[in-house]
Structures are given as structure tokens and as C-alpha cells.
Design goal:
By secondary structure, this protein is of the alpha/beta class. It has helices spanning 10-20, 57-69, 98-109, 121-124, 136-142, 158-168, 210-221, 240-246, 268-280, and strands spanning 2-5, 23-24, 26-31, 37-42, 48-51, 76-79, 112-116, 130-133, 149-152, 172-179, 185-189, 198-206, 226-234, 249-255, 263-265. 32% of the residues lie in helices and 28% in strands. α6 links the parallel β9 (149-152) and β10. α1 crosses α9 (268-280).
């Protein structure tokens, strides 16, 4: 068995290979002077697992080239972070539904596609061979037996937070916006009192961090003792991490679907378990 490690997830690929007792394939990735990308994979045999997240356009092109290089082997594809999944519908007339074409191309080459916490059910619906892995229980495990409450920054993420909170064994809530008058909107937890409590803000993705920065301010103004931020995918663009810390958040915790300094939880085991299930079929 071989694991082909794409350039976006080298450490996670190594951990998955260890879990599977597989070899890491010898690969070459480079960029030509004109900007074109190059991929070579040497001497691999079935079964082959490709691990490559999509956090940039280069990541996507490298992934497509890897799939072409391995086209005769029908690999199992692991995309820890499925980029373009937030472009899951036509918001304005004439827009491309980007995840639709990404799904089509990936499934043309791969035997199965495994991903972690894809952005929406709509995005997932464009795949026919998608296997979804939920990392929210891992976030719950990280905070197990700690005196915290978990808060979703909005109602839309409440179900995710509920999963993490159940494993952590703690209470959970979401921030609700309530209009007081034409000029004033009040934001506060729907039901729980956060005064003198340690609060974990939980979301699937932290991108610019703007939503969590505003949420942290609300919670601190409500008397919260300490604020943590936890997510599955630490996209963290535009100096987001500094913004989070400056807002009063004490610690940011993420999984290694995107390898960042805050990646303190690994998804390698749950991904390896899914791969083993597929190999038994």
C-alpha cells in the first residue's frame, strides 16, 4: 500500500501512512520558470491513497496532476479541506458553481473521495462517491473534562457545536441577534449565562476570523472569564490569527486538515479508519 503525499498536507500524509502501515511514495513537485506546475510519482502499486487538501489554486492543480499521473490505478483520494465548497450555488446569475466542476473532475479519476467537514450539504450533493468524516467529536474530545461551555457564533453552526459539546460533556448555546430598535442590535447567548465562565467558540472554518472576533467581544462584554476558538479548518487568511488574539481570544485550536501552527488535533486516525473500511470492500 502506498500513500502519495501532496504538498498541502505532508505531515498529515505521514501520520496516515503510519496508521495504515503504508509506504510514502516518492514524488517530485516543482514549478517551471513560466509558472506551470510539474508532478512526478515513482514506482507505486495498488492500493494507492492520495492525500491533498485544496487551500489554494496551486493545491488544486497539483491534485489534478497527481490524479492524472495515477490515472491507471484508480486511487482513493483524501481531500482533508475541500476548497471551493463555499461556492456551492449560483448566488448571482451567470456565476460558476465551482464545487460542481471540482467534484466532477475529482470523481472522474478517483475511486472514492474522502473529505472532512465539507462546508454544506449542498456542496456534498454534487459528489456521487463522497465519504464525509466529521471532526467535531475530536474537538469535543480535546475539551473533555475541562470546565467550559461551547458557543456557536450563529444558529447555522449550532448542530456542529452540539456534536462537540456532547463529547466534551459540557453545555452549549449560540449567539442570537435581537433588534432593539432601528439603530441598535443586541447580540448575546440565547440561553446560557457566560459570566465568569470559560467559553469555547466553535465553528467549522475560521477564514478571516471576523465573525469570531465580534463574537469574542460580545462574550467578554458579557463577563466571560476566558475565550477559546476551535475549528476544523484553520484557513486563517489576512492576518486572521493576530486579529483573533488581539480580540481577547486566549487560544486557537484547530485540526490538521490545513497544517498551521494552531493544528493541535489530528484527523489522521479517523481518516485512516475510513480508508481501511474502503479497502475491505
Amino acid at each position: 500500500m502506498y500513500v502519495v503525499a501532496g504538498p498541502s498536507n505532508p505531515q498529515l500524509s505521514f501520520k496516515i501512512a503510519n496508521e495504515l502501515e503504508a509506504r510514502i511514495a516518492k514524488t517530485t513537485f516543482k514549478r517551471f520558470p513560466d509558472g506551470e506546475l510539474y508532478v512526478r510519482v515513482e514506482d507505486v502499486k495498488e492500493p494507492v491513497i492520495v492525500v491533498q487538501g485544496i487551500t489554494s489554486n496551486d493545491d488544486l492543480v497539483y491534485l489534478l496532476l497527481l490524479l492524472d499521473a495515477l490515472s491507471s490505478l484508480e486511487p482513493i483520494l483524501v481531500v482533508p479541506y475541500m476548497g471551493y465548497s463555499r461556492q456551492d450555488k449560483e448566488f448571482l446569475k451567470g456565476e460558476a458553481i465551482s464545487i460542481r466542476i471540482v467534484a466532477k473532475i475529482l470523481e472522474d479519476f478517483a475511486k472514492n473521495v474522502i473529505t472532512v467537514n465539507i462546508h454544506s450539504n449542498v456542496a456534498a450533493s454534487y459528489f456521487k462517491k463522497l465519504i464525509h468524516v466529521d471532526a467535531m467529536p475530536l474537538i469535543g474530545e480535546y475539551f473533555k473534562n475541562k470546565d467550559v461551555i461551547m458557543i456557536s457564533p450563529d444558529f447555522g453552526s449550532l448542530e456542529r457545536v452540539k456534536v462537540a459539546a456532547k463529547v466534551a460533556g459540557c453545555e452549549y448555546d449560540y449567539l442570537e441577534k435581537k433588534r432593539i430598535n432601528a439603530e441598535r442590535v443586541e447580540v448575546k447567548p440565547k440561553a446560557l449565562d457566560v459570566k465568569d465562565k470559560s467559553v469555547v467558540l466553535v465553528d467549522d472554518i475560521i477564514s478571516t476570523g471576523g465573525t469570531l472576533v465580534e463574537a469574542a467581544k460580545v462574550l467578554l462584554n458579557s463577563g466571560a472569564k476566558q475565550i477559546y476558538a476551535a475549528c476544523v479548518h484553520a484557513v486563517l487568511v489576512s492576518n486572521a490569527l493576530n486579529k483573533l488574539y488581539l480580540s481577547g481570544i486566549s487560544e486557537v485550536i484547530a485540526t490538521d486538515t490545513i497544517e498551521k501552527q494552531v493544528s493541535k488535533i489530528s484527523v489522521s486516525k479517523i481518516l485512516s479508519e475510513k480508508i481501511k473500511e474502503l479497502l475491505k470492500k
